[in-house]
Amino acid sequence: MQPAHDAVPGLNDAPAKPEVREHAAAPAANLDDFRERSLHRGVNPLIYWTLRALLVPAFLIYLRMQRVGREHLPKSGPLLLASNHRSFLDPFVIGTLVRRPVYYFAKRELFEKRWQAWILNALGAFPVDRGAGDRAALDTARAILERGDCVVLFPEGTRIRKGPLSTPRRGIGRLALESGVPVVPIAVRGSEHVRRGCRIRPRKVCLRVGRPLSFPTTGTSSPALATAVTDRVWACVSLQWEWLGGERASQAVGERSAPQPARSEARPQTSDAPAVRARGERRAPTTFVRESEREQALPSGDHEPADSPTSGESRGGEVRAA
After folding, report:
1. Which of 101, 112, 125, 196 supports an S-S bond with 120, CB 3.0-4.6 Å?
2. Which CATH architecture describes the domain 18-248?
3. Per-residue pLDDT at 237
4. Could you tell me the maximum CA-CA distance found in the chain, to the nearest angstrom?
5. Cα distance between residue 134 and residue 11, in whole Å
6. pLDDT confidence of 160, banded at 50, 70, 90?
7. CA-to-CA distance for 49 and 71, rounded, in angstroms?
8. Mean pLDDT of 201-218
9. Nearest Cα to 38, choosing from 92, 130, 106?
């Protein structure tokens, strides 16, 4: 890669050295080599099946992996697996669902180290340039599907470690329409809690597989049609995710936008409020006033209303003057 000041006109007008140009073109050539290897040679049987034999019991015992809906996966024929992406373990746990090699997209940054790129490619990974509409990666996946193998695709395009599912990209719709193979929605939950730094912690991982979806083969797909198919597939993935107890997008938005309840402040008791009698305090006895005594206490000319509780015609009982 050339220094940043080489892009400024007039600062360094000397042509770049041939070895620098060759180094800049090397990564693109290597990516094509890895795609060709996945297309023509496939996985390395010795490394793939040996690692799978070790990982399956480790996932079942250490991670308490739970796999629901495996009966929906066809045992033969091309298959496109669409899943959410929470951790680097997702391709490996999804690969345990079927007993045949699984190929999957991997970001091109993982192929910068030669030893790491060789291992990933031997396990079925081929590079994709995210965010650039990598047509070569889609053509590689379509060719793998045409020969009858399985391909894993993460429509979100990147790992979403927390919260609900993210918005998918329409690459899954394009590939489904151009290949015409069944698309199986898969949800993975719990894998984001396994890795913490360099430690692999014993956290439960759950997978749920939905019924395959079929779409017509169009050869070429318009953006609107690819978006519609992507929405259909992602709705089924979201259904599996919610069945596993995953958080809904609408639920997360509602919790963030809900107003916080106001704190209740104690109000001082006014004089109009009834007094609270302390425990053990005796109530004052009620005094009944005779009618003759009450008439003497009233000023002359004043008479008590007829509906008064102390009136002689009170509903509570007859009280006659002495």
Report:
1. 125
2. 3-Layer(aba) Sandwich (3.40)
3. 96
4. 130
5. 34
6. confident
7. 22
8. 93
9. 106
- Domain spans, the chain: 18-248
Smallest Cα–Cα separation from 189: which of 169, 209, 171?
A: 209
Q: Which residues contact 212 (CB under 8 A, 6 or more apart)?
A: 72, 74, 79, 182, 183, 184
- Read off the pLDDT of residues 225-247 as tens digits, 9 standing for 90 and up: 999 999 999 999 999 999 999 88
Neighbours of 103 (CB within 10 A): 25
End-to-end CA distance of the chain: 118
- Separation between Cα atoms, residue 223 and residue 251, nearest integer Å: 29
* DSSP letters spanning 14-45: SPPPHHHHHHHHHHHHHHHHHHHHHHHT-S-H
Residues 217 and 231: their CA atoms lie apart, in Å, by: 17
The conformation of residue 129, written as its DSSP 8-state character, comes to -
The alpha-carbon radius of gyration of the chain (Å, integer) is 38
Cβ 105 vs Cβ 153: under 8 Å = yes
User: Using an 8 Å Cβ cutoff, are 239 and 185 in contact?
Assistant: yes
Beta strands 150-153 and 66-68 are unpaired
Residue 38 contacts by C-beta under 8 Å, 6 or more apart in sequence? 103, 121, 124, 125, 126, 140, 144
CA distance 36 to 27: 14
Helical pair 45-61 and 114-122, crossing angle rounded to 10 deg: 80
**Which residue type, as a one-letter code, is found at position 97?**
L
pTM of the model: 0.68
